[in-house]
């Protein structure tokens, strides 16, 4: 058994042919350090080491994701088809956040291939999560008032608690903790059955998160609610009149902007003053005459068009963490398989399986929406 473990440790994680006599001596982030071993003494690691081997494909994908983010941020307003979807549907911009979360998951699979001390690893994960969350709070919480204003500071009564970096930190935390505590690192992956045994508890945890999300999304009752907004059409020079707008819901399972569970939980826990005040659904046909671009409100627009909604809310961030778990499993394939054909084959199997599940869920949700008359698409 010990000889098999030693042989497993000597296998390269990246698909470069460096010979059979190599030993992995360090691994940090998505960087892998390897040392060649002389044939005469395979246990001597004092020989000259090769430079750190980075997973180039992951670096390239990360760079392309950043380039895509810059593209949609700067061109999205000129070409609304590249901007985020107003509500239902998907556009090119909607792939940016999942790509970032996927990259985080793959990196976690490389970082925690071996965990020498679970408590120490957990402390590092918590520290990095808090730093990333606080950085996002500083950048997106309202501390900076705008690019054209030389003012800063924050009103704690209106600070936005969640955002893009906060969502990434949440996904990183769940995926990393599961990789540290829910994976049996003593199991040798020498067969498909061994792969399943090693990560089965982690898979069940991710399925549990999905189940909690779906149960809340379709089972939680959303009551009527109201919000306060300023009357921007007021002729007052000094201040705007505040208007209380009532929104009628009293439904379960609605996916429409005003009555979905995601917004209900955020309003209940965060409060409407701590949510994103310019939601993406303001570009829908009900709320913009220039849909899918921004524009004036139509004459018969519903009152909820001016209601706040956080695209990186609590429940949606919980589900976004599943994207990190997807990247984590793809990272496991990189770790345990050296042949590119084998990797591509397993990646394709997982990808088409997830695509099929997505289509099935879309059909079921679409039929449910037609039955309840909650959807308009």
From TrEMBL:
Sorted UniProt keywords: Membrane, Transmembrane, Transmembrane helix
Pfam families: HGSNAT_cat
Membrane-traversing stretches: 91-113, 125-144, 164-183, 203-221, 314-337, 344-366
Chain ranges of the Heparan-alpha-glucosaminide N-acetyltransferase catalytic domain: 54-143
Name used for this protein in its record: Heparan-alpha-glucosaminide N-acetyltransferase catalytic domain-containing protein
Source organism per UniProt: Glycine max (Soybean)
């Amino acid at each position: 058994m010990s000889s098999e473990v030693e042989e497993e440790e000597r296998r390269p994680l990246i698909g470069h042919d460096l010979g059979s006599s190599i030993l992995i001596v360090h691994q940090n982030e998505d960087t892998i350090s390897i040392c060649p071993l002389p044939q005469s003494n395979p246990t001597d690691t004092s020989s000259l080491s090769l430079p750190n081997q980075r997973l180039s494909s992951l670096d390239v994908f990360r760079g392309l994701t950043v380039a895509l983010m810059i593209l949609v941020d700067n061109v999205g307003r000129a070409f609304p088809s590249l901007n985020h979807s107003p509500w239902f549907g998907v556009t090119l911009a909607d792939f940016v956040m999942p790509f970032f979360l996927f990259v985080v998951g793959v990196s976690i699979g490389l970082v925690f291939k071996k965990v020498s001390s679970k408590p120490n690893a957990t402390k590092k994960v918590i520290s990095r999560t808090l730093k990333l969350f606080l950085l996002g709070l500083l950048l997106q919480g309202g501390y900076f008032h705008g690019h054209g204003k030389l003012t800063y500071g924050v009103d704690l009564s209106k600070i936005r608690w969640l955002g893009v970096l906060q969502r990434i930190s949440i996904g990183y935390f769940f995926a990393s903790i599961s990789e540290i505590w829910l994976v049996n690192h003593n199991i040798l992956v020498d067969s498909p059955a061994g792969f399943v045994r090693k990560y089965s508890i982690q898979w069940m945890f991710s399925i549990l998160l999905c189940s909690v999300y779906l149960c809340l999304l379709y089972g939680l009752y959303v009551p009527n609610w109201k919000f306060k907004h300023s009357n921007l059409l007021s002729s007052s020079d000094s201040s705007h009149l505040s208007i209380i707008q009532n929104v009628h819901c009293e439904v379960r399972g609605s996916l429409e902007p005003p009555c979905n569970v995601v917004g209900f939980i955020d309003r209940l826990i965060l409060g409407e003053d701590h949510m994103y005040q310019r939601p993406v659904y303001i570009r829908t046909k009900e709320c913009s005459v220039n849909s899918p671009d921004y524009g004036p409100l139509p004459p018969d627009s519903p009152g909820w068009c001016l209601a706040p909604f956080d695209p990186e809310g609590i429940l949606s961030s919980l589900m976004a963490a599943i994207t990190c778990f997807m990247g984590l499993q793809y990272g496991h394939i990189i770790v345990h398989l050296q042949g590119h054909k084998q990797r591509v084959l397993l990646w394709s199997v997982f990808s088409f399986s997830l695509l099929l599940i997505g289509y099935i869920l879309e059909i079921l949700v679409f039929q449910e929406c037609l039955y309840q008359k909650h959807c308009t698409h």
